[in-house]
Amino acid sequence: MMLHDLFFLILQINLLFFSVESYESYCYKHNGNYTLNSTYSNNLDTVLSSIPANISFNGFYNGSAGSQNPDIAYAIAHCRGDVLPHICRGCIQDLITNLRAACPHQRQAVEWADDCMLKYSNQTILGNMETLPAFYLCNTENATNPNEFLTNLRGHLDNLREKAADGGGPLMKVAAGNITMNDFQNIFALVQCTPDFSPDDCRNCLISAAAWIPTTCNRRRGGRILLPSCNLRYEMYLFFNETRLQELVESPAPQPPLTPITRLPPPSSGLQLTNNFNPPGPNSGNNTTRTIIIVVVSIAGCLILADFVCIFLKKRIKRRLEKSHENVDEISTVESLKYTLSTIKAVTNDFSDYNKLGQGGFGAVYKGKLSNDREIAVKRLSKISGQGDQEFKNEVLLLAKLQHRNLVRLLGFCLEGIEKLLIYEFVQNASLDKFIFDPVKRSVLDWEKRHKIIRGIARGILYFHEDSQVRIIHRDLKPSNVLLNGAMDPKIADFGMAGLFGQDDTQ
């Protein structure tokens, strides 16, 4: 019992470490320093304090404070395109605090967080592309097939770069998406430039960012390249908010003009407001003028109404077309996951006891080997739910989209007659309970391996709850549902079964 409690205590502690925000800052030294309470210091305080409340709808800010060089403080802030406004403001506020502490006297500095970046300087920033300094963060795991992975990644980033450079939406230079490789694994990526650049500048910046991958995150399953003017990220799981990106492209809010922040002069400076509208006198109006005004206003109103109707219909048709394309793509994906019953019977020797790996709550599991020598595990579902065939296929498609190194990968399914089969990757070392409760095998699990297993399970659960396309709650997580591969890496099994059997069957 103590081992069980310790297992989940350490599991919860590890989950805390994975949620910590990371910051990368750089203090420029060639632009000199400033002293506290100096003119530049006061201008910098002014422009930075104005940023959170003035972030535009696309997560971008550009402003300045002061009127005389070299004490003008310029600043830009930029959030990742899929970040919600309130999260964006909070992220920028944290960067302001952190960057002032990290670079307390430098006139120029830049910092990145997971969701945003901030830069300030005593020189103009807007429109000046910078590709240095560069920071990178890499996934610690290697790709299964590095050559295929890099080839697919390169093509995917090239396509996204063109979309981002061409706009990605009004006043947006961001693009995101995913591609599926031959082994059904997905590569998700997001690329982004600050929106003040021309298409060519954005394109060149992203080319520079991608050029860092072979020398920094080569062979890794994920990575981030952070430059002052652009950034990119790629992973083998969904990490961006697709809904938010679509909202920005389809219904952007108007952006206010980018104007510098200046200190208001004292009253004696003669600041005046000018109003060019002169109300008519009592004798200046006549019926002709009134008629012209009514006609012009009516026509303008009709034109505006017609524009709104056209925009509404265009968006509605576009959504329907996109939906139909999605349906076609999903149908083709489902069919690519389908195995015939004759194939499965052949590779499992007609579900012989010799090939049987075990019996679980959802059915028996059999080992098989495909014609390409790939070993598989076939779960022969022992219950028939109330679902129809299409509902079963939909659930399988959702589970197949869950891609993480600490999950047992679903390779496909078979649905013929009363047979419902799930085809998984074969995991060599069976389940964790075979080691924990075996007096001989438990000696294999030294503390280093146990810690590795705990961290892997934590990563898998974090993916379920935070990063996957479908939110999963594993109602039956136990040692027998954690499989170990040849390197003793843990892989969570039997997830998502509630959707295939109904809620009560997994209680």
Structural commentary:
The chain is α+β, with helices and mostly antiparallel strands and 507 residues long. It is built from 13 helices and 17 strands. The strands form 4 sheets. Strands 1-4-5-3-2 form a 5-stranded antiparallel sheet. Strands 6-9-10-8-7 form a 5-stranded antiparallel sheet, with helices on one face. Mean pLDDT is 77; it is low at 1-21, 252-289, 321-332 and 498-507.
SSE succession = HEHEEHEEEHEEHHEEHHHEEEHEEHHEEH
Amount of helix: 25-40%
| Main β-sheet, spatial strand arrangement | 1-4-5-3-2
Task: Return the average pLDDT rounded to an integer.
Answer: 77
- Please state roughly what percent of the residues sit in beta strands, choosing from under 5%, 5-15%, 15-25%, 25-35%, 35-45% or over 45%: 15-25%
Could you describe the largest sheet, including whether it forms a barrel?
5 strands, antiparallel
Shape: globular
Beta strands, count: 17
The N- and C-terminal alpha carbons lie at a distance of 22 Å
- Number of helices, counting only DSSP H or I runs of 4 residues or more: 13
Low-confidence stretches: 1-21, 252-289, 321-332, 498-507
Radius of gyration: 29 Å
* Alpha-beta content class: alpha+beta
Subcellular location: Membrane
Membrane topology: Single-pass membrane protein
Keywords: ATP-binding, Glycoprotein, Kinase, Membrane, Nucleotide-binding, Phosphoprotein, Receptor, Repeat, Serine/threonine-protein kinase, Signal, Transferase, Transmembrane, Transmembrane helix
Pfam families: Pkinase, Stress-antifung
